[in-house]
Amino acid sequence: MATLSYVNIFAHDIDRLAEFYSKLFGFEEITASRTPLYRGYVCGGASLGFSALDAYEMLSLERPGGQGEKNLVTFDLESQDEVRRLVAAAQTDGATLVKEPFETYYGWYQSVLRDPEGNAFRLNYPGKGA
Fold this sequence. Notes:
The chain is built from three helices and seven strands. By secondary structure, the protein is of the alpha/beta class. It has two domains: 1-60, 2,3-Dihydroxybiphenyl 1,2-Dioxygenase, domain 1, CATH 3.10.180; 72-130, 2,3-Dihydroxybiphenyl 1,2-Dioxygenase, domain 1 (Roll), CATH 3.10.180. It starts with 5 loop residues before the first strand and ends in a 5-residue tail after the last strand.
C-alpha cells in the first residue's frame, strides 16, 4: 500500500507562503530539507512543502497555464469553532474568503479560502462520524 509523504504547493514567494501556513496551523519546519527552492513542514501523517517556481524546470514539469484550480488542499480540524477561528485568522494574514463556513450535504463543516498567492484550500471539520 502506498502512503502519502508530501503535498507540495508551488509559490512565487516560498518564504511568505510557508510562513502563512505554518503560522495559521502551527506546523513545524523540517529544517533538514530546507533549500533555496524548498521549505517543508510536518503536517500530520504527511508533510506540506512549498516549492519555488524554478522547481518546475528541476522536476522537468511544465508550468501550468490558464485559469482554474490545479489542486485543492484540505486541512481537517477538531471542531466547527476551530474552522471559524482559523477562517478569521487566515483572513487577517492575507487569505481571501471564497465561501463562508457551511455544512455540506454529507455532514462536514467547512470553508473555502485562497491563500495569499491565490491557491484554494479548505478548512474542514469532518464531524463526529469521521
